[in-house]
């Protein structure tokens, strides 16, 4: 795991509660709001399970800590999106909270239903970008959520030891989480 | 025939931005290949290569597979968990062309294990 330069993190008093909201203007027309919100709720829950940080949705986009939207091409932050595949999304380090996904991708919430060869799993990318929102940079561990690339039609949502150790070094551990359970899970999945 | 669904249309639309890089597979150091500058721009974008030249505010690179680019490839391979050959081998090219997060790989504070050297910071 690695961090952004200066190791920024959300610095408000513990317990940290972060709100998130979706842009009312920059949405997708082929997924329902409910589907998108469910994918993000699952992604936020994965991180909240390992650190003492909670996330809650709000309708107030302007005042939310984390602001999420689907944008095309040049969307004003100096990092224009490039169409189908290529760059999938980006998010800013703490405590900025901006979280942008490329609206040109074919985002999927259920790969068994979505038949496109270029479909990208929304929850997987959301989980990765939330890592950036929390202060993690990219990892060199291929299995980690914070590894920078993701092939189309691939679902990768489980935090690995590398992700958990990185984020817990920033925020501490959720008292209900046991790292040993993840070691056992990793050992099992790696044979 | 019914109009295709958005899903079917998306299947026909493939991104060519990085797919064109496949022509650089196994390109040797010292070679001069048209479009190599675009691959160098990719390495610049994600934090592995600093430009030698700037025309106005536009970053430009040569089409030569030079020593500096080889070092950038090695750094990329180290950071992405690839075999460090310094060559544009199959694994490296597949990783380069894979869809990815737009965040630079460079703006990092190394983990205690000492993962990488710091190249530069970004606006993020």
Topology:
The complex is a heterodimer of chains A (191) and B (124).
Chain A: E1 16-22, H1 33-48, E2 53-57, E3 66-71, E4 87-91, E5 98-102, E6 106-108, E7 119-121, H2 122-134, H3 161-171, H4 179-189
Parallel strand pairs in A: 1-2, 1-3, 3-5, 6-7
Antiparallel strand pairs in A: 4-5
Chain B: H1 6-12, H2 36-45, E1 53-55, E2 58-60, H3 67-79, H4 90-97, E3 100-101
Antiparallel strand pairs in B: 1-2
Q: If you had to describe this structure to a student in words, what would you say it looks like?
A:
- The complex is a heterodimer of chains A (191) and B (124).
- With 191 residues, chain A is an alpha/beta fold.
- In chain A, 27% of the residues lie in helices and 18% in strands.
- Chain A has 4 helices and 7 strands.
- Chain A has helices at 33-48, 122-134, 161-171, 179-189, and strands spanning 16-22, 53-57, 66-71, 87-91, 98-102, 106-108, 119-121.
- In chain A, the strands form 2 sheets. A 5-stranded mixed sheet of chain A has the order 2-1-3-5-4, covered by helices on one side. In chain A, strands 6-7 form a two-stranded parallel sheet.
- In chain A, strand 4 and strand 5 form a beta hairpin.
- In chain A, helix 1 (33-48) crosses helix 2.
- Chain A starts with 15 loop residues before the first strand and ends with a helix.
- The mean pLDDT of chain A is 94.
- With 124 residues, chain B is mainly α.
- Chain B contains 4 helices and 3 strands; from the N terminus they run H-H-E-E-H-H-E.
- In chain B, strands 1-2 form a two-stranded antiparallel sheet.
- The radius of gyration of chain B is 17 Å and the shape is globular.
């Amino acid at each position: 795991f690695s961090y952004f330069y200066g190791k920024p993190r959300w610095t408000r008093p513990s317990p940290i509660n972060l709100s998130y909201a979706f842009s009312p203007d920059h949405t997708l027309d082929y997924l329902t709001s409910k589907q998108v919100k469910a994918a993000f709720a699952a992604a936020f829950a994965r991180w909240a399970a390992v650190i003492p940080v909670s996330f809650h949705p709000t309708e107030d986009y302007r005042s939310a800590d984390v602001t999420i939207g689907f944008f095309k091409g040049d969307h004003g932050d100096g990092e224009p999106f490039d169409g189908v595949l290529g760059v999938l999304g980006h998010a800013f380090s703490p405590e900025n909270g901006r979280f942008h996904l490329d609206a040109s991708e074919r985002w999927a919430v259920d790969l068994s239903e979505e038949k496109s060869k270029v479909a990208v799993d929304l929850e997987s990318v959301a989980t990765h970008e939330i890592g950036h929102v929390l202060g993690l940079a990219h990892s060199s561990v291929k299995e980690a959520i914070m590894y920078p690339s993701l092939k189309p039609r691939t679902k990768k949502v489980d935090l690995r030891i590398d992700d958990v150790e990185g984020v817990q070094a920033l925020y501490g551990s959720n008292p209900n989480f046991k790292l040993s359970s993840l070691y056992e899970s990793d050992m099992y999945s790696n044979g | 025939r019914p109009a295709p669904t958005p899903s079917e249309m998306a299947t026909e639309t493939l991104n060519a931005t990085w797919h064109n890089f496949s022509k650089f597979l196994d390109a040797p150091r010292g070679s001069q290949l048209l479009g190599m500058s675009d691959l160098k721009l990719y390495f610049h974008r994600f934090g592995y290569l600093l430009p030698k030249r700037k025309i106005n505010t536009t970053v430009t690179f040569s089409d030569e597979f030079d020593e500096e680019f080889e070092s950038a490839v090695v750094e990329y391979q180290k950071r992405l968990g690839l075999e460090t050959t310094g060559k544009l081998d199959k694994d490296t090219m597949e990783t380069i062309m894979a869809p990815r997060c737009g965040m630079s790989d460079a703006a990092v504070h190394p983990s205690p294990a000492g993962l990488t050297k710091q190249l530069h910071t970004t606006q993020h």
